[in-house]
Design brief:
Rossmann fold, Methionyl-tRNA Fmet Formyltransferase, Chain A, domain 2, 7-stranded mixed sheet, 6-stranded antiparallel sheet, elongated, RNA-binding
RNA sequence: CGCGGGGUAGAGAAAUGGCAUCUCGCAAGGCUCAUAACCUUGAGAUUGUGGGUUCGAAUCCCACCCCCGCAA
């Protein structure tokens, strides 16, 4: 079987690796190199780097429809898409004999869209999973081919769940494709009534509201790091909050956001209980332990996050 | 030339022209049944680099290097 892999982020790499051992990867399609960071360094997508290292041809069209003729010429049996970042036009999806399959990091129809993993953690879900579905012209809409459920443990961070999902994808793709090619799977349409969508989180979404419950704040920190980041302000400067531990506190005292010290640890008051700030990063500074931040404070008595 | 913050002891911060200071850590001693607690003492800094102004520069001026937040 001949496959074209379409993807951009490193989410697809485990899947791509396993495909490369079992099938013929004719080409990899990924987004164009983008300027990144303050210096606007032109950076290739991770998928491109991997493909070049493994001697697989790379296509980087601005718009996918530009490559229609090239894809037709290659005559793939299947398009496999994982975290590409653009809608793929139907005229492309219909080219391969066995259709176009997308790997999505949630149990569809729940959490369609850009940030299923972060949203699952933010909402405090106990489970999530991987869905393989046959793509159509609508976003994350087509009939489901296979699903695999994963449990989300407490205190799971976005990055660790992302990694597990990405590895699970590889396993599920590897297990499912032979059955798909053999015609043993009948796609099941998604239940539109159950559908929900996720948005791309912005810097503003990462602002911490200290009047919320400590457990809610912790989930926000776990889900929205490293991107777009979670932050608060201290004397008109932003401070990223990178890592916290919830502290059981029977008698919350002081205002929400109030900074205090206990056993050399930095404590911030929330609504119902407190959080130990393990790691944070003031604007313009490198990440540092909460205790270090506390050491440098001029007025420890009145220190507060807003 | 996208906007902005920063570089001072091992760490985090003060000091805006005049003895480089504080908190933490570290070392030694003390207290204690004991301690991550407490007390005493100590070590540790060429203030990012190079030049300039000045009797005198962490501080003012010029150039350069490096780190970081936002935005993209």
């Amino acid at each position: 079987m001949k496959i074209i892999f379409i993807g951009t982020t490193k989410f697809g790499i485990p899947t791509l690796e396993i495909l490369n051992t079992k099938y013929q990867i004719l080409a990899v399609i990924t987004q164009p190199d983008q300027p990144v960071g303050r210096k606007k360094t032109i950076t290739p997508p991770p998928i491109k780097v991997w493909a070049q290292k493994n001697g697989i041809p790379v296509l980087q069209p601005e718009k996918l429809s530009d490559t229609r003729n090239q894809i037709t010429d290659i005559m793939p049996d299947l398009l496999l898409v994982a975290a590409y970042g653009q809608l793929i036009p139907k005229e492309i999806l219909d080219i391969p004999k066995y259709g176009s399959i997308n790997v999505h990091g949630s149990l569809l129809p729940k959490y369609r869209g850009a940030s299923p993993t972060q949203t699952a953690i933010l909402n405090g879900d106990k489970t999530t999973g991987i869905t393989l579905f046959l793509m159509d012209e609508k976003l994350d809409h087509g009939p489901v081919i296979a699903q695999q459920t994963l449990t989300i443990d407490d205190h799971t961070s976005y990055l660790s769940l992302y990694k597990r999902l990405s590895e699970t994808s590889a396993g599920l793709v590897s297990k499912t494709l032979p059955q798909w090619f053999a015609g043993q799977i009948k796609p099941i349409p998604q239940d539109e009534n159950q559908a929900s969508y996720t948005k791309i989180f912005s810097w503003q979404d990462g602002r911490i509201d200290w009047t919320k419950k400590a457990s809610e704040i912790e989930k926000k920190i776990l889900s929205l790091n490293p991107e777009p980041g979670t932050w608060t302000t201290y004397i008109n400067k932003s401070v990223k909050i990178l890592e916290v531990i919830e502290l059981r506190d029977q008698n919350p005292t002081g205002l929400a956001g109030k900074i205090s010290q206990r056993n050399k640890q930095m404590i911030v008051q929330c609504k119902t209980c407190s959080l130990i700030i393990v790691k944070l990063q003031p604007e313009g500074k490198k990440p540092m332990p909460g205790a270090d931040f506390l050491n440098g404070l001029k007025d420890k008595q009145n220190a507060i996050f807003i």
